[in-house]
Predict the 3D structure of the following.
Amino acid sequence: MECKQEKCQEVVEDKGTCRKLGRNATEDFGGVEAGDPKDSDDFAYLTYNELPRFTEAHKSLMARNLTPELFEKLKDVKSETGFTLSNVIQTGVETPHLGVGAVAGDEDSWEKFWDLYKPIIVGWHDYDPDTSTHPTDLDPENLSFSAEQLETFNKYVASTRIRAARNIRGYPLPSGSTQESAAKVEELLKDTFAGLDGDLKGTYYPLGGMSPEQETELQSAGFLFQKPKTTNLLTNAGAARFWPDSRGIFHNEGKTALCWCNEEDHCRIISMSEDGDIKGVFARFCALSNAMKVSAEAAGAALMHNDKLGFLGTCPSNIGTGLRGGVMICLPKLNEDVELLEKVCEAFDLQPRGSAGEHSAAVGAKWDISNKQRIGFSEVQLVQKMIDGVTEVVKCEECLAGGGSKEDVLAMLG
């Protein structure tokens, strides 16, 4: 993997990133390598002594909201574990295309740099934490999903997946971790995984201990997280330091429950199935979340969570529930009019993605449709909105399949 930074020809190995990143960034955006205590052999944090030199290419909410006055107010602030404003903004400065452009290095970052995070949260989520309280509901029995809906979903849906991040209070987040703290998080998670039983019982696979064949198999199945590259948040936020140490994946025997360890967050929990049984997938997701909570508390810790922001993590885009629940669904008629599909999804607060993710084609007319919101609604509310919305999307598909017109579908939207 070749570093794309101009004037740096150093090759980036899969296990690391470009040590010379800061030298080119100094020339372009104003950052300098100043010997951050968190520096590692494979990554250097940058220090911005002045407001970064933002360009037209900088699209992030961070770049839009970091005024000279706010920069001066926060530039010398440090969190409890030494995370700085420069650390917060580096990913957005050095990766201009990102939409959020800021990260947290620990739970205290959310307090120390709140004046920057708040407008990002309002802009990204359309949620005002000063006037709102975030609800949490992880009881699958509160979902409404009839036998008739399950039958319909199984007719159209190829797979279902629900995922969210969980982070353990008292430990730095991956962007601000040390090798020692990351190893402690891994050990705590391994204890959690070892305590799972029933259909959640499974095996933890350390990333560094995998054979090439195991890694290829897990990645080709879509189970394993992607390796770091110079254009993503993971690398430029410092979260990919000392790769692949203290990282790995857990999955149960049926490969319907997955947990990623020390990727962008401490743990990403994922529940899935090869059908449309959303309630069953959500129940498994809730069991994983509860197991994380119990394990953290048994170790004298807790999950990062508060009443205003819900579950906290590395990126402001994944706070609140942090939940993305989606189905891979075959929609041959709506696939003929993508603009119409997008209007239908928009009407029900859903987001359509192609078969390989955002901005990709829908191979075989299969679309990944998921909830758009993350915060301000509980987990049950978001999954319910997804169930109800996809039910309406299917009705629109069946209208077209039965000879209905685009105008008929738009009329169904009200």
In short: The radius of gyration is 22 Å. The chain has a mean pLDDT of 90.
